């Protein structure tokens, strides 16, 4: 009974398995279907893009490019950057150990795969899941595509898929040696060096062919992470990496154990090549700033995302490492050539600003221990309307001092931080310049003012005029949402300390890692635009000549930081700093509407001043790079003196009219008092959405329901019906004209595309929404039809190529068949003649009959190798002995004193009363000698031989 129950349970379990399996299959199918439904369209487009991209690739795309050229605002060439890796090395001239080593380390299956190695990808996934470590699954071909063709470091499915498609197409276009050649000449090796030849020259001052195995191993290990394994900055890591590569070389059989042990004991042997290419931009502050901006834009175009806020030191460190690595790569790429850079630089203005600043500091000739002038200076001038950087001063001289302090001169801004951290956010919360505040002890440790004691009750305006620290601290401390920190993030302050997110000391300039004059000038400039921030840059555009595309165009995109009311009140209050406060020394003699703020740090290590007119903003810093000494009283005023000189020049240069800062209609000015008219201050759309989204949504639906039929063109744009219909008629006529001449050949594509674009421009002027939407649908359909036509032309072109290929193939096959038949015809007379000789030899029992028969077999084999057809031949003789010989494709069969039959074999027998039956094909032979009575051997595709009694052997040849 128990046994039956167990059997019953087992049967039930077995019945369940098919259902479980079916369910799993169904789930997999549904998952794949859902995935394809969601991502299928993108995948198909990405694959199509990959194929399209790969079509135009040619060998020259991987060779050195033309020099990068930088132009000023008027189109005049400022600098042509020479190529640093122009010594392109062909595969025949590449050290063979480099190509072998790369394959051994980076892509062992390089000569097996076709661009994408699925085994490598699966191994990489398995390693990450099982061992929690990352292993690369990309082939050398994929790395070449990512770094040279796509120049895209972003991590997403579309980029990876496109990379895989192009990699496979690349393998079809070029040989493995060509792909290795491209990789070896284009891979980034650090320090602006692209390719092994450039790297060997830079790190060892040697030709790559002359490198010893230890130096070569170091270079092979660099592409994995040129920054992390940088032998100059991180020699210990570089040695470990080199030794690991040497071990792999040994394991793969590239070097002997003796060579491995000797090489790993050697030092790195660096001999940095100090040869200067014509890439030095350090002697021109404006130019070096433009190259810095261009490098960051190249980083962004390759998928790098700038980050200004962090949650831990580890996150910041990781970002900094990645940033530095990508910066060096992009900088090397820029220097390597192929780009046209247009800037806002006006060298006349730049040179004049430098002259004015140097004249301000000319009496200070002291130098530090490292020979640099002291005190130092940094100055940034920004156009308020566009956010463009007009001029930058990165120091007092570029002679023996290549530091551009407007880029990396980070110093504490002192009290110049107060407007952007404390006061502007306070005005947003409802404070006014005349609002009362208390100057009293606060903070732990206690915040001190620049004067002793406290003044008690005062106004916000007076507190800013006299730079009262306690008031600024209190205003920031009241900002419980810490919007001041978020505002600094929005304005792209690059070295914020995440631990200061809720630290009111930021209001008095206690920035852990400091700020640059460029950051401060662009932040203040936002006030002149009603609180809208524009990323500071002196670039207009960057054009990629090799790929015929713009990778950057400066659109002066604005970002909301402060409100209009708060921005104007901030400017109005800072005007009092110039007229009645600590900034009087900065007042311009030729322009009275000036605003600004002074700043200094503890022990007077740094002196800051940021000033502005409606048209421009200037931020100046004075101090020592390493805080080696306090500034004197006169030195503390240098930032204001420099602003005064620069500002008076800029007023004349920009032809600035005597006009005050623009005041919002919602702000009323009465003497030094300001007020906000809330009745005129209508809430923005975003305010309404934030307050009550559902109410806003319902209101909008009701408005749309009750709106008169398509009267936007009258209500919003104030157009007459006649004018609007005239615009619509232009679009319709343009569409009709487009349809009158359909595309009939591929050469018309660009013209038709241009016509479509003109129709779009016309439709942009149509303001009746239903008409605009109708035209948009028509234009979209026309675009689809045009694309389809182009695809059909391309398909026809491809079909033509295929047909041509098939015709050529058929002609070649016909030619080959004719040649084979010609050879058969030539051999047939020989065959007939030899056949007769064999017959005669066997008939006469000649001693050379076996040789004659073998010659016949050879001729038959040759005829059959050319596709000819000759039958097996049987030769029978008699007279006391019997011989029955059969010849086949590669054999002979003879018998004496016996009856023997053979097909496609060689079988000879000598003896009495012996019967042997064998079959063999191709190149087999079967011979027997001795006495083998009553034996029967059968062999297929083999060679059988027997010597002695009752023995046999068999071999298989392919």
UniProtKB/TrEMBL annotation:
Domain Penicillin-binding protein transpeptidase: 380-618
InterPro entries cross-referenced by the UniProt entry: Beta-lactam/transpept-like (IPR012338), Glyco_trans_51 (IPR001264), Glycosyltr_51/Transpeptidase (IPR050396), Lysozyme-like_dom_sf (IPR023346), PBP_transglycosylase (IPR036950), PCN-bd_Tpept (IPR001460)
Highest taxon in the source lineage: Bacteria
Keywords linked to the UniProt accession: Carboxypeptidase, Cell shape, Cell wall biogenesis/degradation, Coiled coil, Glycosyltransferase, Hydrolase, Multifunctional enzyme, Peptidoglycan synthesis, Protease, Transferase
Disordered: region residues: 868-958
Signal peptide annotation: none
Alphabetized GO MF terms: penicillin binding; peptidoglycan glycosyltransferase activity; serine-type D-Ala-D-Ala carboxypeptidase activity
Keyword Hydrolase assigned: yes
Pfam families, alphabetized: Transgly (PF00912), Transpeptidase (PF00905)
Enzymatic reactions: Preferential cleavage: (Ac)2-L-Lys-D-Ala-|-D-Ala. Also transpeptidation of peptidyl-alanyl moieties that are N-acyl substituents of D-alanine; [GlcNAc-(1->4)-Mur2Ac(oyl-L-Ala-gamma-D-Glu-L-Lys-D-Ala-D-Ala)](n)-di-trans,octa-cis-undecaprenyl diphosphate + beta-D-GlcNAc-(1->4)-Mur2Ac(oyl-L-Ala-gamma-D-Glu-L-Lys-D-Ala-D-Ala)-di-trans,octa-cis-undecaprenyl diphosphate = [GlcNAc-(1->4)-Mur2Ac(oyl-L-Ala-gamma-D-Glu-L-Lys-D-Ala-D-Ala)](n+1)-di-trans,octa-cis-undecaprenyl diphosphate + di-trans,octa-cis-undecaprenyl diphosphate + H(+)
Keyword Cell wall biogenesis/degradation: yes
Similarity annotation: In the C-terminal section; belongs to the transpeptidase family. In the N-terminal section; belongs to the glycosyltransferase 51 family.
Protein name: Glycosyltransferase Family 51 candidate bifunctional family GT51 b-glycosyltransferase PBP transpeptidase (Candidate murein polymerase)
Lineage: Bacteria, Bacillati, Bacillota, Bacilli, Lactobacillales
């Amino acid at each position: 009974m128990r046994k039956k129950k167990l059997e019953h349970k087992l049967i039930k379990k077995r019945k369940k398995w098919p259902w479980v399996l079916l369910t799993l299959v169904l789930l997999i199918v549904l998952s794949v279907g859902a995935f394809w439904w969601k991502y299928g369209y993108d995948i198909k487009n990405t694959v199509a893009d990959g194929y399209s991209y790969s079509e135009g690739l040619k060998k020259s795309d991987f060779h050195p490019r033309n020099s990068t050229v930088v132009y000023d605002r008027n189109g005049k060439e400022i600098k042509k950057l020479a190529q640093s890796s122009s010594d392109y090395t062909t595969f025949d001239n590449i050290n063979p150990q480099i190509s072998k080593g790369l394959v051994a380390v980076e892509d062992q299956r390089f000569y097996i795969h076709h661009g994408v190695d699925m085994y490598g990808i699966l191994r990489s996934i398995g390693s990450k899941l099982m061992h929690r470590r990352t292993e690369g699954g990309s082939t050398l071909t994929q790395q070449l595509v990512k770094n040279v063709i796509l120049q895209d470091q972003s991590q997403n499915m579309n980029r990876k898929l496109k990379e895989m498609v192009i990699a496979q197409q690349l393998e079809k276009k070029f040989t493995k040696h060509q792909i290795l050649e491209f990789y070896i000449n284009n891979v980034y090796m650090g320090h602006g060096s692209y390719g092994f030849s450039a790297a060997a020259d830079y790190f060892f001052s040697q030709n790559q062919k002359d490198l010893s195995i230890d130096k070569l191993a170091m270079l092979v290990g660099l592409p994995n992470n040129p920054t992390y394994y940088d032998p100059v900055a991180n020699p210990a890591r570089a040695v470990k990496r080199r030794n690991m590569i040497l071990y792999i070389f040994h394991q793969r059989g590239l070097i002997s154990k003796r060579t491995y042990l000797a090489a790993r004991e050697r030092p790195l042997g660096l001999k940095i090549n100090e040869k200067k290419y014509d890439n030095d931009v350090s002697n021109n502050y404006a130019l070096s700033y433009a190259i810095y901006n261009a490098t960051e834009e190249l980083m962004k175009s390759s998928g790098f995302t700038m980050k200004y806020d962090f949650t831990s030191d580890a996150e910041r460190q990781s970002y900094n490492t990645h940033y530095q690595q990508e910066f060096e790569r992009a900088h090397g790429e820029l220097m390597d050539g192929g780009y046209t850079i247009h800037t806002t630089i006006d060298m006349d203005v730049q040179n004049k600003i430098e002259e004015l600043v140097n004249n301000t500091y000319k009496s200070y000739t002291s130098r530090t221990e490292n020979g640099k002038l002291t005190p130092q200076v940094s100055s940034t001038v920004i156009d308020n309307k566009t956010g463009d950087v007009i001029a930058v001063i990165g120091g007092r001289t570029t002679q023996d001092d290549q530091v551009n302090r407007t880029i990396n001169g980070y110093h504490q801004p002192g009290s110049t931080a107060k407007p952007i951290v404390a006061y502007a956010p306070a005005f947003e919360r409802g404070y006014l310049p005349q609002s009362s505040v208390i100057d009293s002890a606060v903070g732990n440790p206690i915040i001190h003012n620049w004067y002793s004691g406290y003044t008690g009750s005062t106004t916000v305006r007076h507190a800013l005029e006299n730079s009262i620290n306690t008031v600024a601290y209190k205003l920031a401390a009241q900002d419980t949402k810490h919007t001041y920190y978020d505002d600094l993030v929005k304005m792209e302050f690059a070295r914020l300390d995440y631990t200061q997110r809720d630290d009111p000391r930021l209001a008095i300039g206690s920035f852990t890692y400091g700020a640059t004059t460029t950051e401060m000038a662009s932040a203040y400039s936002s006030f002149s635009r009603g609180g809208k921030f524009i990323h500071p840059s002196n670039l207009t555009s960057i054009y990629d000549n090799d790929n015929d595309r713009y990778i950057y165009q400066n659109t002066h995109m604005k970002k909301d930081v402060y409100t209009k009311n708060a921005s104007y009140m901030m400017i109005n209050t800072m005007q009092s700093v110039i007229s009645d406060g600590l900034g009087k020394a900065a007042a311009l003699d030729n322009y009275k509407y000036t605003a600004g703020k002074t700043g200094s740090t503890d022990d007077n290590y740094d002196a800051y001043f940021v000033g502005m007119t409606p048209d421009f903003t200037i931020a100046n810093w004075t101090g020592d790079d390493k805080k080696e000494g306090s500034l004197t009283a006169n030195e503390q005023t240098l930032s204001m003196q420099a602003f005064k000189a620069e500002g008076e020049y800029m007023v004349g240069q920009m032809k600035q009219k005597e006009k005050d800062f623009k005041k919002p209609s919602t702000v009323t000015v009465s003497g030094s008092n300001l007020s906000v008219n809330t009745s005129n201050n209508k809430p923005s759309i975003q305010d309404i959405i934030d307050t009550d989204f559902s109410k806003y949504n319902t209101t909008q639906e009701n408005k749309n329901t009750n709106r008169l039929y398509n009267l936007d063109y009258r209500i919003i744009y104030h157009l007459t019906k006649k004018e609007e219909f005239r615009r619509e008629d232009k679009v319709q006529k343009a569409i009709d004209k487009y349809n009158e001449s359909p595309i009939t050949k591929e050469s018309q594509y660009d013209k038709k595309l241009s016509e479509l674009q003109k129709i779009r421009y016309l439709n942009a002027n149509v303001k009746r929404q239903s008409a605009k939407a109708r035209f948009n649908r028509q234009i979209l359909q026309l675009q689809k039809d045009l694309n389809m036509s182009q695809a059909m032309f391309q398909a026809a072109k491809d079909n033509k190529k295929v047909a041509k290929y098939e015709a050529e193939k058929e002609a070649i096959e016909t030619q080959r068949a004719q040649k084979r038949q010609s050879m058969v015809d030539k051999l047939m007379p020989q065959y007939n003649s030899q056949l007769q000789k064999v017959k005669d030899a066997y008939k006469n029992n000649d001693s050379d009959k076996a040789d004659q028969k073998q010659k016949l077999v050879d001729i038959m084999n040759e005829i059959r190798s050319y596709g000819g057809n000759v039958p097996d031949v049987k030769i029978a003789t008699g007279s006391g002995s019997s011989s029955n010989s059969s010849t086949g494709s590669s054999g002979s069969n003879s018998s004496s004193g016996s009856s023997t039959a053979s097909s496609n074999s060689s079988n000879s027998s000598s003896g009495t009363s012996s019967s042997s039956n064998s079959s063999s094909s191709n190149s087999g032979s079967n011979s027997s000698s001795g006495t083998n009575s009553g034996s029967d051997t059968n062999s297929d595709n083999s060679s059988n031989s027997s010597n002695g009694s009752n023995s046999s052997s068999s071999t298989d040849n392919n």
